[in-house]
Structures are given as structure tokens and as C-alpha cells.
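Support request, please re-run this one:
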Amino acid sequence: MAGPHPAVAQVRGAVEAALDDVPEGALVLVACSGGADSLALAAGAAFVASRRGRRRWRVGAVVVDHGLQPGSDAVAARAAAACRGLGLDPVEVVRVDVAGAGGPEAAARDARYAALDDAATRLGAAAVLVGHTRDDEAEGLLLGLARGSGARSLAGMAPVRGLLRRPLLTVPRAATVAACAAQGLDPWHDPTNAPAEDDPTAPQRSRVRTRVLPVLERELGPGVAAALARTAALLREDADALDALAAELLRRALVPAAAGAAVPAAAGAPVPTAPGSAVPADGAVLLDVAALETAPAALLGRVLRSAAVLAGAPPGAVTREHVRALAGLVVDWHGQGPLHLPGRVGASRTCGRLALRVEPPST
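Re-run finished. Output below.
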């Protein structure tokens, strides 16, 4: 008997590997928009969950309706019907309100992940699968390069982050399209993914997908997307190692509010300021300059950014220039005055200590 189509087998193999540590009988949710990537993922999860004549996991789906396009409710209903047709249960459609800073793409992403997290909590899911592919990694790397981003932003998406899992990061988008065709699935084609050549309002990622990557493939030869995704994976390993080293340096440099005070688990991570944390009662984050002044720039920058966030600065607002100015208080100290950072955080150096705290509103 002939086996499945190669693209179908590739998707199924990626899903099975991603769920290897999920307990049998647990609920796995698939985030499904109805597009080729998520629909192929849903079909792969449905097959893998019930192979060898036994049901290894329960598989459901969450369809997020962002409400950004006319008829989005009908698209969401179609995706939900496709998931039910594959045997997924439960299947939920969640309408979200897309609003917030960072532009519509960022706001939609934040709203989507919040909806997935809420659904996973309500339904008791052990994992949530999303359909990002190797091409998404390549597009993200190019966008990060265009912004002048550092290694963490260029490192792409983590295969596993909490309950969220991305099984298809090594699978090309062409394979998900082929897998849908081989299984008789009719995916939805998002019109924003194929904008008109002269459309200046097209999302940046769509322009990279339809205009930039094809040029690179034509001029540099086939395999550019795979090479870019491989670069992102290598950068992710480097960024993870640097973040771990920076977290340890931050632990050593923090002057705790009390003996045994808790400190951040990882540089750059959001840090609670509960009782017993490294933040004193007056809200200041104190760093021992002597512990930092010989640190390599790659580690020092990470530590100082984390300290600013710990003191109350919004993570997305702390720029490279802010971090460089903070580093000047450590490695180029000549009595310069206090710095003013986003979130009304002030930074100053006194008696070998770098203090960061939220300043009172000006009157």
C-alpha cells in the first residue's frame, strides 16, 4: 500500500515530534485560521492523535476572528467547520477586539495570543499548536534586519514557549499547501497575503513574502528562505546562551532589598515586584557597578535593559540608545547627571551603585 503524500508525511512527522512529551489523554488545541498552514496542521494533529487504532490525545481547535476584514465571521465559521470535519472537538470561535500600541499587526498578534491563552486555561489544554512555518521564520528575520534589530529579535520564534508549540518551523509553506491539496482540504486564502504590487498599505510581512523573498530567490538562487530560517535558529541558540549568562550577571550585580531576595530568572523577562523581590520598598533597582564594569558589552546591555524594565520602564520602549547611555554610567563614569528613561524611570550613579527608579510626576 502506498504511503501518504510526502508533504502530508512531513507535516504529520513534525506534529508527532512536537507532541512527544504531551501525556496521553491530554487536550491539544490547534490555532486555526483556515489558511493552508493551520489547516494542514489541524489535519496532521487529528491524524497523529488517533494513529495505530488508539486515541493518544484529544485534539480541539480555537479559531480567532480578529474582525479586521469584511466577512471575517464567515471565514472563521468556515475554518471551524473544517476543523469539525477533521474530527476535532471542542472547536471554538473567539472574536477579539484588536486595539493597542505597535500598529495593527502587533495588536492583532497580542489579541490572538491572549485569546489562545484564555482558551487553553478554560479548557485545560496541555499544549496549543500554531502553524508558523520555515517561511515565517525567514520573513521575520528579514523584517528584523530591516529594523536594525539585535540577536534576540533576529532569532525567530521559539519552537516551545510555555503551552505554545510551533511544530512546522522546519516545514516550508509549500509543503502545507501541498498537504492540503493531497488531502482534499480547501484552505482560505487571506487577501492581505497577496497584495497588489502598487498597494502601499499592504502589511510589511506580506510585502516581504510576495515581493522581497522572490527577488532574493531569483537573484541568489533557490533555498534562500531555508538559509534564512537556519540563520534564525543559530541566532536563537546564541541569544539563549547570552541571556542565561546575563541573567546570572544580573543576579550578582543586584543589591537585594533583603537577604535572600528573589531576582529575575532571565534577563529581559518581566519581573514581578512582590514582597521579598529585588526591588526595595522605595521602588529602586540598585546595581553594584563593580560587578558590571568589566562585563562584555553584549552582557552589560542585556543586564541594563532588564534592570530598566525591572524598575518600571515599558520593555518595548527601551531602545539601544537608552541602554548605551546607561552603560556610560557604568564604564564611562565622569560625574554625568541622571538619565531619564521611558516610563518616568530615572537612573543615576552614587557611591558605586547604579539606581533606577520611577520618578514622581513633575508638578
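The chain has two domains: 6-231, 255-358. Residues 258-281 have pLDDT under 50 and may be disordered.
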